[in-house]
Amino acid sequence: MLTLRTRRNVSLILFISLLLVSAVVWSMNSSEGGMKDGVFSGQAQGFAGTVIVDVTISGGKIADIKVRPHEETPFIADPAIETLTQNILAAQSTEVEVVSGATYTSEAIIKAVEQAVKQASVSYKDGVYTGVADGYKGPVEVEVTVSQGSITKVVVTDQMETPFIAKNAIDKIPEAIIMAQSWEVDGVSGATMTSNAIKAAVEKALTE
Q1: Which of 28, 117, 119, 188 is most buried, by the most CB atoms less than 10 A from its CB?
Q2: 90/150: higher pLDDT
């Protein structure tokens, strides 16, 4: 049987080990969950058009939010923009209330900032990667370039899709992926299978 002293020593060793493991896990989560410094853009549909924001991350925090010239109704949108950007900065989060009377503009700003923050929060290994997925008429191949942890280029290098149907997806989906820094973007209406193939190919390029 173990003596009382031995049991205490074993308990102490286990406790110290638990603390060390917890510290390592906390450190990993902190570094992985942090945001990269830089200026990141996001966009979303507002009431009258697309709303684009530029979010500055400094020291791992949201330091500034600028809304580019937009098509929203000025006397309604401008006060909402000022209020929302201040609230997001203060909360360091997009979990804020929309501004009454400017719901569409508010939701667009929140979604655009979320998109920008997501860009700052993800990091991929630098390099050039290829991926292939099945489209409507055959394989769709993409080439994805990652630089400084971000997706900087997506090119459809080979495909056999119907040209007049697939063109919009081939033009727009890569741009959307770069903007979102994710393959989880909306497809192009009328070219769903091609859109899904491009997204799937990018996912394979970055995860396999």
Answers
A1: 119
A2: 90
Of 121, 148, 173, the domain-final residue? 121
Instruction: Give pTM, 2 decimals.
Output: 0.64
Map tokens 């049991």 to a residue: 7
CA distance 7 to 29: 33
**112 and 156 fall within a common domain:** no
pLDDT in tens, 81-129: 999 999 999 999 999 999 999 999 999 999 999 989 988 888 899 999 9
Q: Which two tokens stand for residue 93?
A: 């989060």
Distance of alpha carbon 6 from alpha carbon 10, whole angstroms: 6
Instruction: Please say whether the dihedral angle defined by the alpha carbons of residues 161, 165, 170 and 173, taken in this order, is positive or negative.
Output: negative
Question: What CATH number should be reported for the domain holding residue 181?
Answer: 3.90.1010.20
70 and 108 share one domain: yes
Please give the tally of structural domains in the chain: 2
* In contact, 72 and 48? CB cutoff 8 Å: yes
Supply 49's token pair.
């058009």
Task: Please check whether residues 116 and 72 belong to one and the same domain.
Answer: yes
Does 13 fall in a domain? no
The answer as to whether 27 is a domain residue is no
CB 105, CB 85: distance < 8 Å: no
53 forms beta bridges with: 42, 67
CB-based contacts of 207: which residues, under 8 Å, 6+ apart? none
Cβ–Cβ under 8 Å, residues 68 and 46 = no
